[in-house]
Amino acid sequence: LAMVCCPKSIRTHCRKCKVHQEHKVSQYKTGAARLLAQGKRRYDRKMQGFGGQKKPIFHKKAKITKKISLKLTCTECKNSAMRCIGRTKNFILGAPPGKGKKGEALQY
Fold it and tell me: Rounded CA gap, 68 and 5, in Å?
């Protein structure tokens, strides 16, 4: 897809309330990596010392887009759910469909 416009609130089913409620929409963002996670400790242990780079560094990047995930938060019970909308080059949150030029942020 070229460009996706998504409203800031959606009325959809809430698993906790068991009825349709208004949900606040936000774009999912990856949190900071933990330094004490098992994979990071193993990687650091293997990398220390002499002998150069021991793990491969990925260079053959093929994808030009990232998958967009939305975080839906219920306004009644504050329960949150994730919804993946797939790959897109441009994603605008809170824009009416068909408004704005490609790659342009909207002014309200």
Answer: 12
DSSP summary character for residue 54: -
3-state class (DSSP) for residue 77: coil
How many Cα atoms are found within 13 Å in the side-chain-facing hemisphere of 17?
18
Q: Which of 107, 79, 83, 85 is nearest to 95 (CA)?
A: 107
Are residues 86 and 67 in contact, defined by beta-carbon separation less than 8 angstroms?
Answer: yes
User: What is the pTM for the complete model shown?
Assistant: 0.73
Closest Cα partner for 86 from 62, 65, 67? 67
The Cα–Cα gap between 105 and 86 comes to 21
- pLDDT tens, residue by residue, 67-85: 999 999 999 999 999 999 9
